[in-house]
Amino acid sequence: MASKFIITSFWVLLFLLPQLCRSIPLSTDSRWIVDQQGRRVKLTCTNWVTHNEPMVAEGLEKKPVSYIVRMIRLTGFNCVRFTWPTYMFTRPGYRNLTVADSLDRLSLPEAKAGFEINNPLFLNMTVVEAHKAVVDQLGLAGIMVVIDNHVSYPKWCCSNDDGNGFFGDEFFDPDEWVKGLTTVARRYHSHPAVIGMSLRNELRGNRQNPIDWYKFMAEGATAVHRESPNFLVIVSGLFFDTKLNFLQSNPLDVGNLNKKLVYEGHWYSFGYPQEQWTNQTNSLCAEVSRNARDNFLFLTTGKNPFPVFLSEFGIDQRGVNERDNRYISCLLATVAEFDVDWALWTLQGSYIFRQNQSNMEEAYGVMDFNWDKPRNPSFLARLQMIRQTNQGPGMNGPKNYRIFHPQTGLCVSVGRIGIFLGECTQGSIWRQNGGEITLANTGLCLSAAEDGAVRVLSNCKTKWVQASSSKLQLAVDGGNLCLEGSEFRSGVVVNKCLCLDKNLADLETCSENPQTQWFKLVPVQIGRSF
């Protein structure tokens, strides 16, 4: 029965091949990922885990694979970063396990019973076959796939001392790693859904060093490119994939792999106490945004830019973590500005088995615990601006902007009801000339009135400055009034600037949340098909 399922999926996939191949293979053009016609293809992905001990995609014990794939499309993702552990492809004792065997060895009878109800054909597949069966289903739905080598030994990731962190660690043999990359690249060589491979997730630990990074990442990149020259090759950095700054002085010695090389970075709220986010929101946002720019986003700029794939970011989607709630607005502003490709952590609302616990909940998951529906639709709606393709190859002419409000995910629009926050796909287009912000092609200026209203007027008296260290508060020059918004179709007004002194500098500490006043002028290209 398992082989029948695989054969049927193959023929259906072959029948749909022309539609699936409209965009692939993908390549790079400067800092952009593009299709065969040179049009930008923006990756807006979610992560889906297969690297834990069971070595099978999370959620298949709770819902049919077709249902999960359909939910990925319905929640707005065009791509999945699909993980795998090295041992699953390099060691017979792992790759020859059936899904049933894998669940039995971990004593997971409830998960096995769930497979029998929701995905019975998977039980007799090997874990390697099951991995491909999920990729096939993603392909049938037109969803692109990045195959991500997450760990070597199948287990939860990541800590500094888990043996999976860096070349030479207990479970991380470089030769076996290259063998695994080669095997997976060969297996998915001609698969119409697979657009690329990520070489390794979150290098880390006491062994990490740039010298070995250059040596082994070049070997891994070359091995994948040799086996599957159509794949994008995605290269991660050090310190949990937060640092690639050493590339500023010494590029990776692989060229651009015939326009296939992409770099990746991760960005979470971790490492800063909640009190700092709540008391110094502006200054901390400035700091973490600068860190992202200096450590990996810089690769999108300069004389020899590359695409950057923000392959992990995310929040506790229950909404109870104030550190996460403040960090995400900061991140969305920067990601919108740079218009990078990205993958949200994470799809799964629960794990079959993680850290010695069965049926463990994932608060960062798009899906709820039972995989019935999205956990937090309002958060997904806030991603609208970064889902859009705002920039691309050949950006010329006057700079146009949308004014983005990251706390709501909405943009400043002008309509019959005045100036309000609305969908970013319909957001008004603005231009900036010194301190003036004008509605494109009208000569009308964004203006603050004495009654706190905001209007567009032909008399351009209001000059705006980017205030606070975060540069996210648009303040009236010479005053202490800032642009402010709150919810969909609500009016945009000016109010006293939050957390700023009379000189528009950050207060040392501030108990208020200035994010209602955060706005980002996001560059956009108008009238161009990418």
General description of the model:
- This protein is α/β, with parallel strands linked by helices and 530 residues long.
- The protein is 28% helix and 22% strand.
- The chain has helices at 2-15, 17-20, 65-74, 87-90, 92-95, 99-105, 109-118, 127-140, 174-187, 210-227, 274-279, 281-295, 322-338, 377-381, 384-387; strands at 27-29, 32-34, 44-48, 79-85, 144-151, 194-198, 232-235, 261-266, 308-312, 341-344, 350-354, 357-361, 400-405, 410-415, 418-422, 430-433, 436-439, 445-448, 454-457, 464-467, 473-476, 481-484, 493-496, 520-524.
- The strands form eight sheets. It has an eight-stranded parallel β-barrel. The protein has a four-stranded antiparallel sheet with strand order 15-14-13-24.
Strand order of the largest sheet: 3-4-5-6-7-8-9-10
- SSE class: alpha/beta
Total strands: 24
Number of helices: 15
In the predicted model, the low-confidence regions spanning at least 5 consecutive residues are 1-21
Q: What is the averaged pLDDT score?
A: 94
Question: What overall geometry do the principal axes of the alpha carbons give?
Answer: globular
Give the helix level as a range of percent: 25-40%
Beta-strand content? 15-25%
Radius of gyration using CA atoms only? 24 Å
Largest sheet: 8 strands, parallel, barrel
Gap between N and C termini: 44 Å
